[in-house]
């Protein structure tokens, strides 16, 4: 099954003018009609389904397990980007911060690590294996954060910590090689390994600090607040207790606070949040939607998308506002396709949505994000063009052709067409204004047939 296809239109006044020139050819061919070629405005339109979208949408999630201590916004309230929305009380996150700070201070004061032997290579191998597991698990944990700036920051922090550890590891291995070669002391080698350990404690401390700072939840974008989340929420999925258990000891406390204690991941409260509501890490609490500017995403069939480009104008009809028409302009066309459920291939076309008018010319209501629409993209427009009714043009092998009444006889003539309206077609080569062509019954005309 194919997707949306091209719909081609011509202005009603132009169509009336073309048809007014139509006449019967005479008794010899009562089913054949001819009309004079004229000038007209022809518009070629591609129709596609679309959806109204907001300028930006930001979901706000709990950074750690706890309870809502302060709620500063109401449902439907407008807020600025960065405004405080709520505060979460998380004893686990606070305790994890204290533990991480103490571990980092101990590592800093020790200056080196104590190893039960001098096989530095084996010890470094064990440390590297533990670090590989830790960083892999840390990335998995960060990926559980709902999509958006928070997830990007969490993943970036893991990558930065990994880069720091890799640098410290290289230094430690170099020190171990120097020790084995008799070029460095055991103290120097142990100090290098201690520095690698310090990278881990600093990463744990930074993660704990970010979690505590995030307990003051702020608006990711300016817009309208919608309290609550979809049924089922966006809480982290999977056996996260096992993830925390696999982390190094220095990171387990912070991970436990981040993921939520007591295995409460399945107890996320659905519906609107309120003061005193329990929350789990990653649970979606509210959404902020910026509706200061609306856009539209249309799904254009692969057979038509090559005609669509930025700057193309469109008319939009919404199911929610019958009889109204809105203006829109194409901003971009996706290069990657989307395969629909029925197997058709479409491309997302993004448009800036303008104001609309109802059938009486009055200003139409402002749409809301998520509303469905039919988008008419004017991909080609020709004004004062040589035009004929669409019924005059027929396919003859690989050519497009018309029957011209030349001296009273039918003459097949190959033409090149431009914009193709539903009722009229622009002819860019092969016809002149004033010539007469068959506009009805072309399939019953033969070369040389008598025409008036």
From TrEMBL:
Q: Which Pfam families match?
A: YknX_C
Q: Which SUPFAM superfamilies match?
A: HlyD-like secretion proteins
* Signal keyword on record: yes
Recall the GO molecular function terms of this protein's record: efflux transmembrane transporter activity
| Gene3D superfamilies tied to this protein | 2.40.30.170, 2.40.420.20, 2.40.50.100
Q: Which InterPro entries does the protein's record reference?
A: RND_pump_MFP, YknX-like_C
Q: Where's the YknX-like C-terminal permuted SH3-like domain?
A: 386-450
Superkingdom: Bacteria
Q: Which residues form a coiled coil?
A: 151-178
Protein name from the UniProt record: Efflux RND transporter periplasmic adaptor subunit
List the top taxonomic levels of the source: Bacteria, Bacillati, Actinomycetota, Actinomycetes, Motilibacterales
